[in-house]
UniProtKB/TrEMBL annotation:
It comes from Flavobacterium nitrogenifigens. Keywords: Signal. Pfam families: Laminin_G_3. One of its GO terms (molecular function) is hydrolase activity, hydrolyzing O-glycosyl compounds. The keyword Signal applies. Residues 1-20 form the signal peptide. It comes from the Bacteria. PROSITE patterns: PROKAR_LIPOPROTEIN. One of its GO terms (biological process) is carbohydrate metabolic process. This is Concanavalin A-like lectin/glucanases superfamily protein.
Length: 299
């Protein structure tokens, strides 16, 4: 009987050791596994971190987490599930007006604007995604518009910037237009990552959709590289002026004085927008790709 009891105790001891060993193994197996880096980054805020000057995540708030654009008031603003957290949900009457714009935005020499949009075709005019206004210019300083023209499967997009030109020349009404043979396809009904940049040193414009650089003719990518009015020299760096306020989802004309009433074709943005960012540099191709993949991965 004692012998059987000894054998039973020994068996129990061995079983306990095996259980502890297995438990240790399970704990090690279930330990958190770090995210695999993308492009050398762990999260989207690490991409060109020193050049990120403004960021709106729209996670239930209209605030700029970088504090460069402040004093915001939302009109008929609501939120819906976004790429990361929630997203701004536009409508025919929605927009956000900001009263204060920091020098980091006013004095931009180069720029990258990045955002996620999800929208549907529209008619009746052009919807404004955002605008950096100018007090005495009908077209403002910087904006991106979506035109309600063309086949329902394509998007005609316009981007506008002010540049430093000496001698000064009028630039009102001049845009980069992704229309005609350069209209953007398959842009509606799903989340699309849209990035455009302007490099003031090379006077070069670039556009990216879902992390991929769009092949553009030199008439667009080098649109600003040569100006006959200045002897063929480049337009050079950005030169925003008379900056007043900032608007998301509308035109400067929706802000009231000193601008007149909006024209009938000036439409509010009716789609969704998420992770809106402004950089003070032209991001590289790998940086844009990494930003797209990280945000898509909700990082």
């Amino acid at each position: 009987m004692k012998k059987n009891k000894s054998i039973l105790l020994l068996s129990f001891a061995l079983a306990s050791q095996i259980f502890v060993s297995c438990e240790d193994s399970i704990d090690k197996t279930n330990s958190p596994i770090p995210y695999e880096s993308i492009g050398g980054y762990e999260n989207s805020d690490e991409v060109a971190a020193t050049h990120l000057v403004s960021k709106f995540s729209f996670d239930g708030t209209i605030e700029d987490s970088k504090g460069a654009i402040t004093g915001g008031t939302g009109t008929n603003v609501s939120y819906e599930t976004g790429v990361k957290g929630t997203a701004y949900k536009g409508s025919t009457t929605s927009f956000i007006a900001y009263n204060n714009v920091a020098n980091s935005i006013v004095n931009l020499k180069n720029i990258t604007v990045s955002m996620w949009i999800k929208t549907d075709p529209h008619t009746g005019g052009a919807q404004s995604l955002y605008m950096l206004p100018k007090k005495t210019d009908f077209w403002g300083n910087i904006f991106t518009l979506i035109e309600g023209t063309g086949p329902a499967t394509t998007m005609l997009m316009k981007n506008h910037i002010q540049r430093d030109v000496t001698p000064s020349i009028p630039w009102s009404g001049q845009f980069i237009e992704h229309g005609g043979t350069n209209v953007l396809s398959n842009m509606f009904g799903a989340w699309k990552h849209v990035v455009w940049s302007y490099n003031g040193t090379s006077s070069t414009y670039s556009l990216y959709i879902d992390g991929q650089k769009v092949t553009l003719p030199t008439s667009i990518s080098k649109r600003y590289a040569s100006d006959p009015a200045t002897g063929g020299g480049p337009f050079g760096e950005l030169a925003s002026s008379e900056v007043s306020k900032f608007i998301i989802g509308g035109y400067q004309q929706h802000l009231g004085a000193p601008w007149g009433n909006p024209d009938g074709w000036m439409l509010h943005y009716t789609g969704l927008m998420d992770e809106f960012r402004i950089y003070d540099s032209a991001l590289t191709d790998p940086e844009v790709t990494a930003l797209y993949k990280l945000e898509k991965d909700k990082r």
